[in-house]
Each structure stands twice: as C-alpha cells, then as structure tokens.
Write a structure and sequence with these properties.
heterodimer, A: 479 residues, alpha/beta, Rossmann fold, 2 domains, 6-stranded parallel sheet, 4-stranded mixed sheet, B: 280 residues, 4-stranded parallel sheet, 8 strands, 46% helix, globular, binds iron/sulfur cluster, (Fe-S)-binding protein (chain B), oxidoreductase activity (chain B)
Chain lengths: 479, 280
C-alpha cells in the first residue's frame, strides 16, 4: 500500500505544525497583536480584581450546580422546549448529528443552508457533510465567511479569522469576490454584508449554535455582534440549532452572571450587540420567525468527561476564548497548528474526549503549565491541573484499570517509565543523590532522551563545581 | 460572536501582573530557626544562590538548617504525569522537617509544590495529609519570608543600576510572591526597576516542556530574552532557578552579555554582604 501524495500515511504531527507556525513571521505578528488587543479589552472590563474573583467564583458555582444535575436539566429542557414547539433530537456522535440534520434538510428538500456561527457544527464538519449531499452551506458570521471563502478552518473559537490581517482579507476578497482591492476594514465588512444579505432570503434553512440552553423556560440563548445570528434564526422557514449537552443551565437567573462573564471575557464587551432568546417557532399571531425550530443535542465524548469529577470541570466551559487569548503557546502557534476544532487551552482539555487521547497525544504536553488560562477562565476551570491529569492518563499503561479515557496510555513508554523510576530511586535515597551530585556528568541519563532540543535555543547548562549540599555542609555542618 | 479583525490597538503589553487575591497571614514574630529547602536545580546549577540565601537569613539573626537528606520537591515527575513517582519523592522530603520551624524555599515553583500540590498527592492518605497541611502552612518563598516574616530592611551600598525582575509563573500565580520581589528591590535606594514587555508572560521553561516542545519553548524564551534585553536593564534578577537556567542559557546562546542572577545573590551583594559561594 503506497500512500498517495495528498494523503500522507503519517498525519502531519502537532510538533511539525507548531514548528512551521513559530517560524511564520506574519502569523506570529498577527496573533501577538490580536491577542494583546483582546487581553487589553478584557482587562479594561474587570478593573476591580476582587470583584472579578467573586464573579468567577459565582460563575463556577452556577456551572457546577448545572452539571451536578445535568441529566435532570436535560430532561426538563427537552420537556419545556417540546412544549414550546421545538423539536429536540439527541445525537451521541457527530455522525448521528449530521444524519439528523440531513433528515430535516431532506424533508424540506432544502438546497441552501445559511449558518450563524456554531463551533458544534464545526465539530460535526457539517458543511462538508451537507455539501457531500448536494446542499450548499454558507457561513454568515463575517469571520466564518472569510474563513470559508479562503477554504480554511477557524483559528479561534470567537474570532475565526483572527489569523488574517486586513491586507490578507483584502486580497482574499479581491480574488474570490472580484471586488476592488481595499484594506479599509469598514469597506471590507460592507462588501461581505452585501454578499450575504440576499442569501438570508434565499436560504431554506438557518443553522445556529447556542450559548445557553435554559431548562426552566425551554429557550435557547444566542449572543452575537453582527445580526447574522438573528437573521439566520428568523428569516429562513426552518431553524436548526446545534449544541453540546453541557450548554444547559437551570434558569434565566443563572444566565445573568454567565452572560456578563462571557462577553466581558471574550471580546471585552459589557454585552454583545445582539442577545437572541429563541423560545419556539412562529406562533399563529406572529408576523415573522421560522415555522419549524429544531435543537440537536450532541454528546461526542462529553459523557466521558462528565463521568469523572475532575475531568467534568472541562464541561463548565462557556466558550469565551479568554484562555487562548492569554495563552503564550496559542499566541505563538495560532489556532490551526493544533489541528483540532477547538484550539488553545480549552481545545487541549476538551478534544481528547472527542477524538480520544491517541489522536490528541501531544496536546496535553504542549503547555508550560504557566497557569495563564486558569487565571482568566471566567468559570474557574483548573485547566493546568486537568492538563496534568491528561498527561497522567497518557502515560498510564494502556490496559490499566480503572479506564477513564479512550486512548489511555497513548504515550506509554517503558523506557520513559523506567527513567522516572530511576529518578525516584535517586531522589528518595540521600546517599545516591549525594553520589549523583558528586558525579561529573550530573545530568546524563536523567532527563528524557530528547535533551538535544534544549541546546537548539540555549547553551548547555553547566553544573557548578560543588553542590549546595556540599557548601551548606561546610558552612552549617551536618544536619 | 466574532466581528472581523479590527484594527489592533497598542496593547498594555507591559501591564504588570497584579497581586494575587486572598492575603496570607504571617507570624508576628521572626523565628529563631528555619529550614532551607534548596531545590534540585539550585543545588546543581546555582549553589551560590543557596549560600547567599543562607547568609541573608543568618544576617537576620536566624539559624538555618539544611537537611542533607533533601533532594527534589517532586515537581518534574508530577507535571509529567508520573504521579506515583512524584509522591514517593515528596514523601522523602516530608520526613526531613521534623521541627515546626518555617521552611524557606528560594524558588516560587518548588514552594508552590509544597504549599499547593502535596495536598493533591496525598489526598487519600489522611495522616500524611495532616503533615502536608502543616508543612504547607509553614512554607515560605524566600523573598516572601524576608519581607513579610523577617521584615527585612535593606541598606543599598551599590552604585546606581537598572534592574529587570523576572518572576516565575508559580511565583505570580500560585504564591503571589512576585510582589515581594518588587518590594525588596524597591528598598534598594540606588536601584531602578525597569519593567520588560509582557512581564507577566511565561519564559518557556515549564520543566520537561522545554525539551518536549522545543520549538514553542524556544520561541517563548527568545521573546522573553528580547524583552529583558530591550528593557534597558543593567541586570536581570529572578527568584526562580528554573527560569534562570532557561533565560541564561538563551542569553549565552545568543551571545548576549546579559545574565540573570538569583535575587538572593543580588540582594546580598547590594547590601555589602559577601558571597563565598562558588560561581557556576
Ligand atoms: S475554558 Fe474557560 S477561558 Fe477557556 S473558553 Fe472555556 S470558559 Fe473561556
């Protein structure tokens, strides 16, 4: 079996993509500038550190409470949505979710779908799937529109086209939309909007994501800044919302702190331009709105995270993107290098549940555990602690019980395990440790075999002539 | 929620990391004796900094004990996912501090390991956990201890100098002791602290991260050294030897003359103390 040139037998690794990204000066510049901008915007929204801490603790409790009764809340959500006339569908896998969407599309003989921004639809690769069935999908969020035009994937969960600067967007529009080249951002937005406007009226179906699904009232809340979300969910005759099962909250009261945390953490806005609350299809006496509303609730590995009290905290996420904006790794490699739908710190902790640890084996290691993500997360997900836990799952023997995660032990290596056992022996035996300190080659055999990489960017560390143990003994005596 | 990539404003890139929320209570009295936990990186690569820490403490009238059985806090294995190995190494350290003297650690990240992560390692061993909690309560990072417990008064004897302070991520985010480093430097009359670009960002060390992800770590340390060199500082100081190993290695590779030194060595030298430690 020979591998075709387009489909390498070995998928391009995370490390390879990261290598290319850090050497891409334009990419580095775009991300550094954009992340600095977003960090400053967020910081300006939270001038009072104590208030921020109180709010984060509150947000965390609201999410933890919702998750503690997740099955019950999902049932209430379904009952109340159904009462409101929304059809609820359950999908365990992305294939099931796509099949559900396709059934709805087929039932309406739909040919054109217009989409508001939805990361779950990215998770499903819905565009690709529907296009394979002869259905056109058009992204209406400006960032998503740009990314789709360039035949790319989003590089950020909130700002899909953040990897591009105005000049790059200008070239893209000039090439694909055949308009005059302009770097005027307002003009570029105008061009995009003009292109999209007609499409809202031509579409048979509108697709959107959901920010919060409210169990008590049976409603779906969606925030956005461009009005495209409202258009996608009200103009076409059918609206399909897709979301993950973790997005449910108990009641409208719970939404208030979460919404405030979300918009302030994400874009540094006190509130988004549009806040849509969708509570069912058009009623008999109403003039507009879709005739049919569907909600597809997707699991896709979330239940695996839910089953473990530590990993469950991953599901607190309200998808604000602050963790990526503050991440020194994301800032340097951008979103595409991760090779996953969700990049950055949240991507590293949520994707292993979706794709398994095998397919995401390098992601937990791609962090210095600096803690910037955990520090800003509005719902206090201890991302560094979860990354550490994923590393542990990654190096456990594949067959060891209990089995918490699909792909457990994907980085299991006997050699590395023995190295750490030797390290343990050395560091639990004062005599050996002392001998080791005395040995001239103090580091050999201790650090994992790939110490070579250290010297790519640094001179080799030089052990001192005498250890502190020796100096202290001379000075203080044996203790 | 996206809107297109809008014009990028000049960021507050040098915005300093704020103090950590939640204040720690400090003892009213300076103790007569303390333990010093030297840390493994310092032991091998910066032993003079450990000696300088001892001298600073002694000058405050404190008797320092250095348990010869100490090795490593266990962090490298812990952050690599080898929890069992980390726990056994941690257990060996726990046995060293039998008196209830404070344990002073010249490293934010190893102090953070004692104060925050040992409890995770021993969460299902109630008896050990009590011991761990007692240790956590009396563990102090060196700068924190000098300032808050010794209430040190530094008398600067040096000539005017500009200094950039690099704080480790654990110092900033776990221990909140970055503010202590700043306060100690500000006691020195002839020292002007200069803040470097993206002060609150990681230097890229991250334990085994720097060898597992060399490209990303390399990009981070290049940015960090460029920011430090660009700050116009005559000297770079830090209270964490992991960061220093990384930053100095990069400075040397880039053939820059700047080198970071441990805060303890800098403080001792500025205040007329003499380090008889061996230079590495
Ligand atoms: S993990 Fe936290 S910071 Fe990151 S996207 Fe989710 S809510 Fe936001």
């Amino acid at each position: 079996m020979s591998a075709h040139a387009d489909t390498p037998a070995i998928p391009i690794s995370f490390k390879r993509r990261a290598h290319d990204a850090v050497h891409d000066a334009q990419l580095r510049k775009n991300f550094r500038g954009a992340m600095d901008f977003l960090m400053a915007k967020r910081a300006a929204q939270f001038p009072d550190g104590d208030e921020l801490e109180r709010l984060r603790a509150f947000g965390n409790r609201v999410r933890a409470r919702a998750l503690s009764k997740l099955p019950d809340l999902l049932q209430r959500l379904e009952a109340n949505l159904t009462r409101n006339g929304v059809k609820v569908h359950w999908a365990e896998t992305v294939d099931e979710a796509n099949a559900i969407v396709h059934q709805i599309v087929a039932a309406h003989e739909a040919k054109q779908v217009i989409k508001g921004k939805s990361m779950v639809s990215e998770e499903m690769e819905m565009n690709h799937y529907l296009e394979g069935h002869g259905v056109d999908c058009l992204e209406s969020d400006m960032g998503e529109f740009i990314v789709q035009l360039g035949n790319e994937k989003p590089s950020h969960i909130i700002m899909p086209a953040i990897h591009l600067n105005a000049g790059q967007v200008a070239s893209l529009f000039h090439d694909k939309l055949e308009v005059d080249y302009t770097e005027d951002v307002d003009r570029l937005i105008q061009i995009g909007r003009e292109t999209l406007r007609r499409k809202f009226f031509e579409a048979d179906i509108g697709v959107s994501g959901v920010n919060f699904a409210i169990a008590e009232t049976g409603s779906l809340l969606l925030v956005e800044n461009e009005g495209n979300g409202r258009m996608s969910t009200t103009v076409p005759p059918v609206h399909i919302a897709v979301t993950g099962i973790e997005k449910v909250v108990e009641n409208l009261r719970d939404v208030v702190p979460l919404l405030s945390l979300l918009t302030r953490s994400a874009t540094g806005q006190p509130i988004t331009t549009y806040v849509n609350v969708i509570s069912g299809p058009r009623k008999a006496d109403e003039l507009d709105g879709p005739q049919e509303v569907h909600l597809v609730l997707l699991d896709n590995g979330r239940s695996q995270a839910f089953a473990d009290s530590e990993l469950r905290q991953t599901l607190n996420c309200i998808r604000c993107g602050a963790c990526m904006n503050h991440c020194p790794v994301y800032t340097r490699i951008g979103g595409h290098a991760y090779g996953t739908v969700y990049p950055g710190p949240i991507g590293k902790i949520v994707t292993p549940h979706m794709l398994g640890l095998e397919a995401t084996r390098d992601l937990p290691s791609a962090s210095s555990l600096c803690g910037a993500c955990g520090e800003v997360c509005p719902v206090k997900i201890p991302i560094p602690a979860i990354l550490r836990r994923l590393r542990e799952e990654n190096v456990r023997p594949p067959a060891a019980e209990p089995h918490h995660m699909r792909g457990q032990g994907s980085k299991y290596s006997r050699r590395e395990r023995y190295t750490w056992k030797a390290w343990r022996t050395l560091n639990t035996s004062p005599r050996l440790y002392r001998l080791f300190g005395l040995a001239a080659t103090r580091l050999s055999g201790l650090i994992p075999a790939d110490i070579g990489p250290w010297t790519e960017h640094r001179s080799a560390p030089k052990p001192a002539a005498r250890t502190l143990h020796e100096l202290a003994r001379d000075h203080l005596g044996e203790d | 929620m996206s809107s297109p990539h809008s014009s990028v404003a000049t960021p507050q890139a040098t915005r300093l990391a704020p103090p950590l929320a939640g204040a720690r209570n400090y003892p009213a009295q300076k103790p007569a004796e303390v333990y010093l936990f030297g840390t493994c990186v310092l032991d091998l690569f910066f032993p003079e900094a450990g000696m300088d820490a001892i001298r600073l403490l002694e000058r405050e009238g404190i008797r320092v004990h250095f348990p010869q059985g100490q090795s490593c806090c266990g962090q490298p294995a812990y952050t690599s996912g080898y929890t069992d190995e980390a726990r056994e190494v941690a257990r060996a350290q726990l046995a060293l501090f039998s008196h209830d003297w404070p344990v002073v650690v010249p490293s934010g990240s190893c102090a953070g390991m004692f104060r925050h992560h040992y409890a995770e390692l021993f969460h299902d061993e109630p008896a050990t956990l009590r011991q761990v909690e007692a240790l956590a309560a009396r563990t102090y990072e060196l700068a924190e201890f000098l300032l808050e417990v010794c209430r040190i008064q530094l008398d600067d004897r040096g000539s005017p100098i500009k200094v950039a302070l690099h704080t480790s991520c654990s110092a900033r985010r776990e221990m909140g002791t970055h503010v202590h480093g700043r306060s100690l430097l500000s006691q020195l009359g002839q020292v002007e602290r200069v803040d470097h670009d993206h002060e609150s960002e990681c230097c890229g060390f991250g334990g085994t991260f720097c060898v597992r992800m060399p490209d990303i770590s390399g990009a981070m340390v290049r940015d960090k050294t460029a920011a430090l060199a660009g700050a116009g500082a005559d000297a770079v100081v830090s209270a964490d030897c992991g960061c220093l190993l990384n930053i100095n290695g990069a400075f040397e590779k880039q053939q820059q003359s700047l080198r970071g030194e441990h805060l303890a060595s800098f403080l001792l030298r500025r205040t007329g103390g003499k380090s008889d430690g061996v230079q590495s």
